[in-house]
Write a structure and sequence with these properties.
Blueprint lengths: L27 E6 L4 E4 L2 E7 L17 E3 L4 E7 L6 E11 L2 E2 L7 E4 L2 E4 L4 H7 L5 E10 L5 E11 L3 E3 L5 E4 L6 E4 L6 E3 L9 E14 L4 E5 L2 E6 L2 E12 L4 E13 L5 E7 L6 H14 L7 E4 L4 E7 L4 E13 L2 E5 L2 E5 L17 E2 L2 E14 L14 E2 L5 E2 L13 E5 L2 E5 L9 E11 L2 E12 L3
Parallel strand pairs: 3-11, 13-34
Antiparallel strand pairs: 1-5, 2-3, 4-9, 6-7, 6-10, 8-9, 10-11, 12-15, 14-32, 16-28, 17-26, 18-25, 19-24, 20-21, 20-22, 20-23, 27-28, 29-33, 30-33, 31-32, 33-34
């Protein structure tokens, strides 16, 4: 305070001093860890375990294989007490460890996205740490920011990232020492690659699949019969008979005649048929003959080109007394053009056949016959692709590679090296051991570093081969 009077009994100014006691909010955390996601040491909660996403299928793509885990899942109950009500909260990665060593600075590939912790799949440092012997860990802080900008950390916990893929060399691999041509160790087995759940990872493959389609096939055989050679009419016969009428009254006893005749008709094959005709009463035998001739022509059967009188015509006399009225029709004239025929040679012709209904049931054995149908099959091959199991999800995979330049052994006499002249050659998932110049004479072990590249880096293991003496 300043005195503005030029002359005053009071001092020119007075200074006030104040002491202000400012207290930050005292926040307390009441939290319960979610046991199923933590690694514990006795009763102590050590790590919140974070794994890659679970594949939706055995053929899920690599783009689905990501580290992205909600940090809120670390606790089944989580309450912060003492909040003033005008704050915001966030998670922050404050430390990272690679193979057990604290990194400086914090690894950029370990990231926070809201309430989620993620890993950058393109980050080489992340991949190297993830696949190291001691793995990748991060310390996450849960921080509240007050309205005045002050920050209060209410919780810190460690996250352990689980390596997605493991390379598992089989045990019990052995070769024979000093074997002519060498000996081969095969390290291929179903558990060579497994994921973090210990499920096998299997490469995709192609195979040839035989397909069989069973069905009813119509197999009825047409039936044929032999038709003999025969005459076939070309033009039909034409018969024109003109009749006249006679009528009179007898003046004396008058003799009249009836007739009867048998005719034999012949076909080309030597067969024949007979027909007998009779007439009414006529005055003359000539009129009887004309009537029989007309009947013979009218009754001529088809395909019988020849006819002969079989025996004689039998005439019977009939006496008519005087004053009898006689009336009848007689054959006045005959105009006949015979039928013409052609010869058709004998031939086999198909007998009409009616198929049975297709069976409505499946056959019990191939070759089974049901009516016109046979139970049969059609076979064909086709290539079939097997996606394997999780090969694409955790991939892309490289070949399993043995580092034959870093081989060690259990041999102490030569500093844990291979015997002089011994060689190792990898072919696929096998390794050939050759040692013919310096046999050891007792059992020893060979240790070969092995690695395989996959989508999240390079995982490693050691192939142990037992070398037995050639006794």
């Amino acid at each position: 305070m300043k005195n503005k009077l030029t002359s005053s009994e009071y001092p020119a100014s007075i200074t006030f001093k104040f002491t202000v006691n400012v207290k930050l909010p005292e926040l307390t955390l009441d939290a319960t860890e979610n046991d199923i996601y933590w690694t514990k040491d006795g009763d102590e909660y050590k790590y919140f375990n974070v794994n890659v996403s679970v594949p939706n299928s055995v053929a899920s793509p690599a783009s689905d294989c990501q580290f992205r885990r909600a940090l809120t899942e670390a606790y089944s109950a989580y309450t912060v007490k003492g909040l003033p009500g005008c704050e915001s909260a966030r998670y922050k990665v404050i430390k990272t460890y690679s193979n057990g060593n604290l990194t400086s600075p914090v690894m950029s590939g370990v990231q926070i996205d809201g309430n989620y912790i993620t890993l950058d799949k393109s980050n080489a440092a992340v991949k190297a740490a993830l696949n190291s012997a001691n793995g990748l860990q991060a310390v996450v802080a849960h921080i509240y920011t007050m309205s005045n900008g002050d920050e209060v950390t209410v919780n810190e916990f460690m996250v352990d990232f689980i390596r997605p893929v493991n390379l598992n060399m089989p045990s019990g691999i052995a070769v024979i020492d000093a074997k002519t041509g060498g000996d081969v160790a095969d390290f291929q087995w179903n558990g060579l690659l497994t994921d973090w759940r210990n499920e096998a990872i299997v490469k995709d493959s192609w195979s040839w699949v035989e397909n069989v389609h069973s069905y009813w096939k119509r197999v009825c055989t047409p039936e044929f019969e032999y038709v003999q050679g025969h005459e076939e009419m070309v033009t039909p016969a034409q018969l024109d008979v003109e009749y006249g009428t006679i009528k009179f009254t007898t003046t004396t006893v008058t003799t009249m005649y009836t007739g009867k005749a048998t005719y034999r008709y012949y076909n080309r094959l030597g067969g024949s048929t007979k027909k007998t005709y009779t007439t009414e009463e006529f005055l003359t035998q000539a009129e009887v003959d004309a009537s029989l001739e007309a009947q013979k022509l009218a009754g001529w059967p088809l395909i019988y080109p020849h006819v002969e009188l079989d025996g004689d015509i039998i005439y019977t006399e009939v006496s008519k007394p005087a004053s009898t009225t006689i009336e009848y029709d007689y054959v006045k004239s005959i105009n006949y053009v015979p039928a013409t025929y052609k010869w058709v040679e004998g031939n086999w012709t198909m007998v009409p056949h009616r198929h049975t209904e297709k069976p409505a049931f499946e056959g019990t054995s191939y070759g089974q016959i049901s009516g016109c149908w046979e139970w049969t099959k059609k076979e064909w091959g086709r290539p079939d692709w097997n996606p394997g199991q999780y090969w694409f999800f955790y991939g892309p995979f490289g070949d399993v590679t043995l580092d034959l330049n870093k081989v060690t052994t259990s041999l102490e006499y030569n500093g844990n090296k291979l015997p002089d002249g011994a060689t190792l050659v990898q072919t696929g998932n096998t390794v050939k051991y050759v040692n013919v110049s310096s046999p050891v004479g007792y059992t020893y072990q060979i240790f070969i570093p092995a690695t395989v590249n996959y989508g999240w880096g390079t995982t490693s293991s050691t192939l142990t081969i037992t070398v037995n003496p050639n006794n």
